[in-house]
Amino acid sequence: MVFLYSICQLYKKRKITILTIVMSAMGFAVIYYAMINYAFYQYPKKQAEKLVSYDIQNVYMLAYQVLYVPIGNEELQHILSFDHSLDNVEDVMSHGMFFLENSYDVGENKFYMQKSISSLCNLYNTDGIMIDYDVNKSEYGFAVAGYNYAMEYPVGSVYEDDYGIKYVITDHLKKNSHYIPDDNIGNAGINLDDVIILDYDYALSQNITLLYNGLTSYYIVTDNKLAVDELIDEANGKGLHIYGINNIEDKYNRDIKDYMWANGENYYFPLILYIASMISLLMSSMISVYVNKKDMGIMLVNGISKRQLIAMISLQNAIRIAASVVIAVFIWIYFGSRLTGAMKELTTKLIPWASIVPIVSYLLINELSINMIRDKKAYELLN
Amino acid sequence: MIELKDVTKVYKGDTYETYALKNLSLNIEDGEFVAIMGRSGSGKTTLLNIIGCMDSASQGMVIIDDIDISNASAHKLDVVRRNKISFIFQNYALMQQYSVYENIEVPLNARNIKGQKKRAAIKDIMNKLGISELAKKYPNQISGGEQQRTAIARAFVSDTKYILADEPTGALDYENAIELMELIKELHQAGKTIIMVTHDSQIASYADRIVELK
């Protein structure tokens, strides 16, 4: 009976139902947008800023051959021994390791990439990566060739890696494309002109176990130039390279400054949108309760209990929010893709959070809308 | 049987206290048709709300079929109301987006009466009240008299023992009002207990007993 009347009320007042669902959907879409902005742009940027805030002139990154190439077990031990040797070195203010979540092969000119990072590649001038290239994955993975490989590997050609796994080249990157690892301190970026990006998921599915997460290290030294030189000399002596992060920061800011959502000056903008969206969601639910108030009073005097009415409101809120979320995701995929070019990847990453937001919103909104009738007597609802 | 013993209803604000009912005692026997009269503000509707489990008394006892509802929880009041009481209102209280048929079936759905039994009960009451042809119409498509017949059908369809009517003819013209009272009288003769609030002495004359509130 509760289900019957819940559906019935939504249908009978379908204009207001559609209006509230659309309002809620827009609210969710904005919330998702704000979340993605924070998770994928603001947070990594803040992490980077945290590191460089000491003094960008004095922060140095250590890496193997190429800036930010992750390290395998053997190389890791090498770096760790160097890292430990700095424990008591004067002028080294702080040093430590940080974790690179995504894994790459260290082989020459190739690079395993999780699909999800393609969205960030896109942000840094690599739009056009065809993530959804329709290939039979039991035979081929997909690969995207860097700019300098465009002639050697045209779209549709097959690249075979050192393990004998074959990949179809689905697209080429624009010149000077960079990969910025998400969620990593430093965010220096790797120039992708001379790399072939291989489908990480596909490689994993072929039981390649040589992919690993990596550690790299950072050093913060005093402004003693001599100390810096000694550090560099010591690293070079061990076959390692040290890079100043100031160049990284310049590049980072240059790439990011025109992107409104990632601009640090707009930090409060997503928060304001989030609050506005929550108000929109709440209003849509309250409007619905308000327009059904008299009907609820009529139901109450005709034998339907207050508990059943509350269950009806809860169910209607759940239906409305579920429908809103579905629409919001479609809005997000359709319009969002025009903004960043790889929204499907972001949406995939968002799913765990995307499911929490409606649940939290539902609990809050449901409580507030139920409060509109909880203490009301039947005759008060009727009037 | 409905028993009210020293029932008082007081509305309190920060600076005022208004007595809607003061030390009212009243017994209503099963099968009686009682009209409650009184001037405006005498507490007629308040009394009906208390008997109908829509409001509770500030003091005193209200007993319906040996169930003391004076201090009952909201849920217990819901249960008593569902099992024993139906209402007819002056403004009909029909759901505008629901058809005549759908309005009449609400109390049956609330009591989980389904299928053939439900359809037969609705058909029967609609025939008795002469509104069979209106089943698919919506309240805004029928006249005031027809709307009140729909409300009466809804009150009687669930076979509750007590029917509470608050100015049931208040929005109707004289002819319709008399016609409707004849119908209510006829339904009362089938064994229902009817408690009706009215300010019209001619309408009240249909009752077995008139209680005047002062």
Could you describe the 3D structure shown?
The complex is a heterodimer of chains A (383) and B (214). Chain A has 383 residues and is an alpha+beta fold. Chain A folds into 2 domains: 2-45 and 264-382, no CATH class; 102-212, no CATH class. Chain A contains 12 helices and 11 strands. In chain A, the strands form 3 sheets. Chain A has a 5-stranded mixed sheet with strand order 3-9-4-6-5. Chain A has a 4-stranded antiparallel sheet with strand order 2-10-1-11. In chain A, strands 7-8 form a two-stranded antiparallel ribbon. In chain A, β5 and β6 (166-172) form a beta hairpin. The longest helix of chain A has 39 residues, at 14-52. Chain A is elongated and about 85 Å long. Chain A starts with a helix and ends with a helix. The model of chain A is unreliable at 47-76, 96-138, 180-188, 207-218, 245-265 and 340-345 (pLDDT under 50). Chain B has helices at 44-51, 74-84, 100-104, 106-110, 115-129, 144-157, 174-188, 201-204; strands at 2-12, 17-28, 33-38, 59-64, 67-68, 85-89, 162-166, 193-197, 209-213. A 5-stranded parallel sheet of chain B has the order 6-7-8-3-9, sandwiched between helices. Chain B is globular. Chain B has one domain (2-213): Rossmann fold (3-Layer(aba) Sandwich), CATH 3.40.50.300. Chain B is built from 8 helices and 9 strands. At the A-B interface, α1, α9, α10 and α12 of A face α2, β6 and α4 of B.
- For the termini of chain B, the CA-CA separation is 23 Å
Could you give a short account of the major beta sheet of chain B? 5 strands, parallel
Largest sheet properties of chain A: 5 strands, mixed
Number of helices of chain B: 8
Helices of chain A, by number, come to 12
End-to-end distance of chain A? 24 Å
Number of domains of chain A: 2
Helix content of chain A: 40-55%
Report the count of strand segments of chain A.
Answer: 11
Oligomer: heterodimer
* Shape by Cα distribution of chain A: elongated
Major sheet: arrangement of strands of chain A:
3-9-4-6-5
What percent of residues of chain B are in strands?
A: 25-35%
* Mean pLDDT value of chain A: 62
